[in-house]
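#dry-run=false #mode=assembly
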Amino acid sequence: MDGMDIATLMEGLGARAREASAELAFAPPQAKEAALLAAAEAVEASLPQILEANARDMAFGRDKGLSDAMLDRLKLDASRVAGIVAGLRAVAAQEDPVGAVVAEWDMPSGLHIRRVRTPLGVIGVIYESRPNVTADAAALCLKSGNAVILRGGSESYHSSQALLACMVAGLKAAGLPEGAIQMVPTRDRAAVSEMLRMVKYIDVIVPRGGKGLVGLVQAEARVPVFAHLEGICHIYADGEADLDKARRVVLNAKTRRTGICGSAECLLIDRAFYARHGGVLIEDLLKAGVEVRTEGELLSIPGTIEAKADDFGREFLDMIIAARLVDGVDGAIAHIRRYGSQHTESILTENQATADRFFQRLDSAILMHNASTQFADGGEFGMGAEIGIATGKMHARGPVGAEQLTSFKYLVTGEGTIRG
Amino acid sequence: MDGMDIATLMEGLGARAREASAELAFAPPQAKEAALLAAAEAVEASLPQILEANARDMAFGRDKGLSDAMLDRLKLDASRVAGIVAGLRAVAAQEDPVGAVVAEWDMPSGLHIRRVRTPLGVIGVIYESRPNVTADAAALCLKSGNAVILRGGSESYHSSQALLACMVAGLKAAGLPEGAIQMVPTRDRAAVSEMLRMVKYIDVIVPRGGKGLVGLVQAEARVPVFAHLEGICHIYADGEADLDKARRVVLNAKTRRTGICGSAECLLIDRAFYARHGGVLIEDLLKAGVEVRTEGELLSIPGTIEAKADDFGREFLDMIIAARLVDGVDGAIAHIRRYGSQHTESILTENQATADRFFQRLDSAILMHNASTQFADGGEFGMGAEIGIATGKMHARGPVGAEQLTSFKYLVTGEGTIRG
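#status=ok
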């Protein structure tokens, strides 16, 4: 397709989404719940087709030379599909955020004011290889009364289409407009650029991906964005850290799962900690099979390798960590301000004032004290499913569930009340 | 100044604001309060200089041929300056939103999670003729821990500079960074375009103005925007409206003050109302001196004049109103969806189901039932000062006070807690 075709195609998708969103905005909670349950059933019933579609994607991915990590993210099997089904049912069971009265009060003028939740409108989700995002994101958008335009990675094209068909079947079964969940039907990258500029049809873009997508969004987005970008998470061992807690948490923060955005990518060690305990944190990581890239004194620890300049501020998503000595909590704060991505950082200390300083002077979506960065997850926050961890500060921040996909309006009632 | 100079100038302002915002983010509430009180004192003490600066602006405005309405907005006198002083003191007395714990809870993992308010960072405010916005906007940004870059209209340049000096004096007195409140020191329009693209230095733009500014923002903004744009407010008299309430509210909605964004610009009359009560609402408006622009049957009411096509969806800000017959609440909803600006609309009816339908199917920031649109005002909502009425849906909506100028972060504490 040439550029002209893409623009026309996207305009069609946009107009259809906008129309659906007007209807979805006041769809009864029962209809949305029914659609999600029917979609879950459709996914269950379509297991063979979904796995077949995924096999085509996997073959395509292997031919394309995708890394094992990428292929693993792309892969679906019966258990992962069961996870998708469970996810849909969990979102169906959640409370419907739309119409909820967030606050209400009376004014001396006689007016009664209610602030109630409303959908945002149309949400564009741009993601990469994981096909399950198709179902997860669509479910959260539907629950929150928003229409969604999905744009998955070209690697997961067939898997995502198979899941989309199930979601649309759910909409049909519940009598909701099919335009509520659409997917960009082309692998052409120009469609992403188009989405980023469709201010008339898309109210917010949720981009989930790595550096390439970040760059594109920063250069081109005209639509507001809930950035779910890199998770360059730091963990700082203060001079007054408890050694056992520090060892336990650092190891967990890096190694529990390396492919998630809450995985620690950089270990900052207070010189005071190092003077007292030596390289024990790094030795633990090395023993666990982590590659430790560092500099200066820490290079004297056998097994470490020298960090390149760009290893600080880098999201490895792998059994690799950058490590550096810093001067106390202020050194850690300065390093994180320079290299962090405002996702999640953790401090290990028994000194409450030091922890307070870390909490106050850093401005990441999530700050932790004596806890693993791996907890950066909607489920671990008690929010249920999430569409991502927002690293921006506008509207949504941290784990983004159905509630954060809503706006609000004021409903004001009087008795022929006029302003004096 | 040429384009290059403007870019360099704005980069300097931006960097200074960003630096100040890092410090402001954890400034003690007492310091911010002290700065606002000192600024109020400075405004009081500088009354002669402020009036002198304003006289220069007024002379400039008259030479430029500004309308009387524009000149009135530009004008400062002792009483209006006293209003600015009172406004600063009121914001000083407000609760500090930063650091407030919005929610907190425990998780089975042992984590304790707090959601606390944080400043957004750097706010750009672009406004037109009213010089008081300089003090009001700066005060709200400071209270919410944000640095601000102000860009007032060229007409109010000297008045705004005089008020800025007082605000900066307040910062100095309280030991806060002077970069926290800055004003673009040029009348060059290119500075506005620059602001709209300064994603590195400005976190959100608050544009307050008419069609010209709207167009510029829509075409150029790369920075997120809290649009405070047109208030094309509708008032709908349903067939089941109470006649007395309807007469009282319609007259107030249009005529109490015509220059504010909550003033009604379009009256929609249900055919059933018209069949029962005739043109009484329009006759009331005509008697009060309002020019009524209408069409069809309503033109038979003596004194009405024929509406042009663009009189619907137009913000008159004057003693002018557009009027049209519609078929019931659904006709009103369809008209408002097409012509409204999602600011404020009001329905007059005694039928609760009809009012509910209006509330549910429209998506304006403020919807009213049997109340005047003139109540669309932060003070009337009990929020104190406001930086404007946001007509967008992202982050802020309706009256934007200090609280809506904040974001939040999660503070999570454990006891060496790791994820299983």
